[in-house]
Design a protein that fits this description.
homodimer; 348 residues; alpha/beta; Rossmann fold; 3 domains; six-stranded parallel sheet; four-stranded parallel sheet; 12 helices; 12 strands; elongated; DNA-binding; LacI family DNA-binding transcriptional regulator (chains A, B); DNA binding (chains A, B)
DNA sequence: CTGAAAGCGCTTACAG
DNA sequence: CTGAAAGCGCTTACAG
């Protein structure tokens, strides 16, 4: 058994300790910390020495409280774990924020808008100086709160700004079109879709819309039954989705899944059912998570540049917090990544 | 272009606003917030009404500063993104902390001990009330800092407590032995290892030790050349590792990779080289990340219960912060998960 | 260029 | 059961 705090715990040195050791006022210590040029070199060095001796580091909390500006940023993503793309974005976001001098509080809403609102509220209570969200669909309460506090906020994985919140991401709809056109070009006419749109997921909805658009353009019908809507973009749901599609009267030859995880599940289930990919069935996903290239066959998908999105989000927030304007919509290229899970449609 | 703060931004209500609206002192408002039973029902309701009207939520920062106890926890993991197991642990950790009333600041050290130390320092400056780390190898500076501040700290993904820091995880060494014994039982005698131990990764080192132990037990030699050490546990390094092992004079029939990502890369590369898994080559990994079950063939591995680790870490921290003792070593079961990437060794 | 004083938004003994 | 006052560890006008 272990106990805290340890008996040998020492209290941290504080600014006033440095001040007395250096024989200066607190104000002066604060200055050498924040605007060293302003203080006489001689004194500056003396204070610096005291800082080093005491191993002093300022309490960011007190600093934030008194200065009115904190250096913590909050983010709410649908999920942090699993095989979703967001963890890559969070990693890049944290990384970039760290170099800019910010810390990141993360929370995952589990694709729940209400929960997202609660988490935003908590982040604000924690004094977050900026917010990084996902998508363009928010609870009215959340929007009101954000507007009310006027805290710098950006949203990610979408290029559409719906509420004045700057957006950074790919054009999901265009990506859906592109992937579909590829399949059409390969001769596919019977499509099946597995889409995690049941929980009003705006990114997947846009992707689905893009698919529909491209199909309509080409005059290829998409019966209602051929679209399986699921809640969460899990591998398991990909399995289930495919299982359903394969039992249709006319079995699709092309399966579009709105995330890679769904596609991996769909491929796995297809294999289990004795279907050969891509000869019997072409499968595509979205995002290009890092395992997408390693499945067998390797998955054809559209790359969602999560790391870049994370970095840009950090930079925009930093700029906004310095009073600089930032673009309302930043569209990143979504590169079509053709691998081995797609092929010419099988002869009927 | 977008600007912050919005012109219509309103300042948050504060405790004193509630106090004047309810015609009571600040102390009283504070009490209805923190120990409602102590205050007369009549007044309590009046204050509550004022709180609701103003939509007041206390500033956690000020609260932390004045009370001396914060509700933010910090974690440093080797990586948040990619196909590592940690994001699942972070998700569960955050989840559980949220229900306990804590927020989580995360940072990723990129498997760099020095960077980890800096991040711990930052977390402490941010007033973290507790720390969740990974592994049992820390920089001396980090250890000194943790001891000095006496802040509740737990470490994860290992069952060994090396510095008095409570550990929660599987017995990686035993897991390595178990996986190896499985392969030995299948008749394998020529082993190849891909281990991310180049960066003094204690978990993978323990796994490797376990492999060595089981082989020694069985009298099966493991030539130096048959162990490829890599830095990061990436899919790409798995590829490279396998490429090297396949060029040995006597090609191994069993490949042990110290993480699933490495194993996925190894399998992918083996396929590319025309080797059939598991007929020509058995491959195993560690962790059982969620895509491990979906690769073709599905990966034989050992489950690392990341979500449970995260939850327990949260609970232990919570207990420690309430002055309760917590176990120094908590070993979680690492269940062997046999799938299709392993088979009887091919006849020589 | 430096210091004394007030203040950030809370909590917490201490009186009453 | 309630309030006035001091304090948490900083920053920031304001004097000097």
């Amino acid at each position: 058994m272990s106990h805290f705090p340890k008996p040998n715990a020492t209290k941290k040195a504080k600014l006033s300790d440095v001040a007395s050791l250096a024989n200066v006022s607190a104000s002066t210590v604060s200055r050498v910390l924040n605007q060293p040029d302003i203080v006489r070199p001689e004194i500056r060095e003396r204070v610096q020495k005291a800082i080093d001796m005491l191993d002093y580091t300022p309490d960011r909390m007190a600093k934030a409280l008194s200065s009115g500006r904190s250096h913590t940023i909050g983010t709410v993503v649908p999920t942090i774990g699993g095989s979703a793309i967001f963890s890559d974005g969070v990693e890049a976001l944290q990384d970039e924020l760290e170099t800019l001098g910010y810390s990141l509080i993360v929370s995952s809403s589990r694709y729940d808008i209400e929960r997202e609102f609660q988490q935003i509220k908590t982040l604000l209570d924690y004094g977050a100086a900026g917010l990084v969200l996902v998508g363009d669909t928010f609870s009215p309460d959340a929007l009101r709160l954000i507007k009310k506090q006027g805290i710098p906020t950006v949203t990610t994985y979408t290029n559409k700004s719906r509420h004045g919140i700057p957006a950074i991401g790919i054009d999901n709809r265009a990506a859906g079109r592109e992937l579909t056109r590829l399949l059409l070009k390969l001769g596919h006419k019977k499509f099946g879709i597995v889409a995690n749109t049941a929980l009003q997921n705006d990114r997947s909805q846009a992707r689905l819309d893009g698919v529909r658009e491209a199909l309509a353009e080409a005059g290829v019908p998409l019966p209602l039954k051929n679209v399986v809507e699921v809640k969460l973009p899990t591998i398991e749901n990909g399995r289930r989705g495919l299982a359903g599609l394969v039992e249709l009267q006319t079995v699709p030859t092309a399966i579009v899944c709105t995330t890679d995880a769904l596609a991996l599940g769909a491929m796995s289930e297809a294999r289990r059912k004795g279907l050969h990919i891509p000869d019997d069935l072409s499968v595509v996903g979205f995002d290009d998570i890092d395992v997408a290239a390693e499945s067998d066959p390797a998955l054809t998908t559209v790359k969602n540049p999560a790391a870049e999105i994370g970095r840009i989000a950090a930079d925009y927030l930093n700029r906004a917090m310095n009073g600089q304007p930032i673009p309302l919509e930043t569209e990143l290229p979504a590169s079509l990544t053709i691998r081995s899970s797609t092929a010419i449609a099988p002869a009927r």
